[in-house]
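Let us practice reading a record.
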Amino acid sequence: MDPHDFCNPERLVISPRKILLIGTLGSGKTTLAEYLARDTGFPYGSIDECRTRYSNSTVEGEDCAWDHFLELCSRPAPGILEFSGGGPHVDEVRKNLLDSTIPVSVIWLMLPLDTCVTRALKRQKNIPWPFPWGPVEYSVPAIHDSIEFAWECVWSGEPGFHAMRQEFGSSVSVGEMYSVVREICLAEQRNAGEKEL
């Protein structure tokens, strides 16, 4: 879906922060991150975008992509970021986000796994990746389990982050998901006692 298809007439005005969307394949991370970037004016970055720009489907290319993504995480500037939220680079992402010295919100987008599988099977993207992918039907639950572990050990236990696990039903539309994510961002602003700009 083209991020310009969904129009929200209200600009999302929040104080500078990093917003990290995590979730398994097909959870809507990229689409929602692009909407947030558009409406906040914060720059967008993802590991898949870094893979597309800097990787060549080799292990060295994958390392280069992660170096670039981690640099985005550590910049002392606002941004809308997304990656699965699990896997071998979780601790590095966490450290780099903390090193950025600005507030960080982590939002886990959770949908029923069968919905994520259906969505992931429709993906048209060809992301450079040096390792063979397993079938989506196995990859989605495996990634979910990795996020679940990281959620308990890294994301929700980090006092420097505002972490929220947001569950959605299988029939939720992208627009409904985006409305919820926008409200989470605005509620965090209110809860922090910050004045909207």
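A brief commentary: The chain has one domain: 18-123+130-188.
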